[in-house]
Design goal:
This protein is 36% helix and 15% strand. The chain has twelve helices and 15 strands. The mean pLDDT is 97. It binds pyridoxal-5'-phosphate. The site of pyridoxal-5'-phosphate has 15 residues, from helix 5.
Amino acid sequence: MESKLPHILTSLPGPKAKAIIDRDQQVISPSYTRSYPLVAERGQGAMVEDPDGNRFLDFAAGIAVVATGHCHPQVVKAIQEQAARLIHMSGTDFYYENMVQLAETLARLVPGGQPRRVYFGNSGTEAIEAAIKLARHQTGRGQFIAFRGAFHGRTMGSWALTASKSIQKKGFFPMMPGVHHIPYANCYRCAYGKTPDSCAVECVDVIETELFRTTLPSDDCAAIFVEPIQGEGGYIVPPKKFFDELRRVADDYGILLILDEIQSGMGRTGKMFACEHFDVVPDVIALAKGIASGMPLSALVARADLMTWPLGAHASTFGGNPVAIAASLATIGLLERELIENAARVGGHLMARLRDLPQRFPNVGDVRGLGLMIGIELVHDQKTKERAPLLRDQIVQMCFERGLLLLGAGPNTIRLCPPLVITKDQADFAAETIESCLGAIGRP
Ligand SMILES: Cc1ncc(COP(=O)(O)O)c(C=O)c1O
């Protein structure tokens, strides 16, 4: 694994990978979405090796999870030492120090300078479920605002907030009532036909002018759930005034502003949390994915005066597992010492290379992002902006065959969410590979 660039030895999948995929197809839930046949055997930094010895550059990071790269030695050491000392005790019933230490760390990191309290879960969706319950409990209100294109998880509460793909809804009704979805601040495809110059933040204005007058009494609205950068929806970056207005509406009507930073948080955007780019202070923030470099952990960090629910109101057997927490403390140390800065620097370099793709390739409609959270939206026509989902899938597949692991986001966007350890050379390789694939599909 010494090489830091891809090396493909077999056709894909190779024979050993294929044998594993054949077995997988007999026993694993067919609901998993595998974009292409990658079998991972080991990983180091931004590189992943399959069982046939093919080496890939990972710009997917286990869905934006391995923030410090695969198997960072300091994270591995922290996990090994903690596993030898104490694997599980259940923070619900007993105390252990590293859980307190991580809560203190997160409370310090979340912007706003207010006292904070932390609830630990194991996955993003658990943090969102906790947020739904906390919001209902503390406000005494039962309804929520969320955004079209949002992804907040797939369990019953978070799934009701999710408005990403209809296949995620089909056949599962009824769902948690009381969620009102409104268009997100997608300036490339403004739902209100505005341009950045003519925008009066209609996408927030609609809350007061339509929702509160028609279907949602303002004093029944517990919280607004919003991703600072819409992740699964297509890596969409809203303007700062979107958050200014959301904060104002929330404050005016006693509604909680709950930021889902499960994908955008933990250094990915070149700041610890994406909300710092927009100077918005959340009442509650949900974290997972990158928080522990691949160990299952999530955290819900709330204003201390909000997280006052009584003993037994909410808890989890495994949430805040000591080994996951040790990984998280090591991860945050690395992020603060070097990797947030690397995400900003290499992300800036990558964006500088990609920004003019729309001028160079007719199928690229938009390139957007912050730090190492970058989306490339594919269209059939730059004027009509007709989405090109199949072209997107084709590029992702072609990049895989050239050793670059990517994922889609939204119907027609390529997402770049590499580990935050990537080098400029790796960023250049990714950009060149994507450009060569874009060039290839562009030819008749
Ligand atoms: C913004 C956001 N929220 C919530 C989730 C759900 O996280 P998990 O899959 O860990 O439950 C995701 C997962 O992609 C996400 O991107």
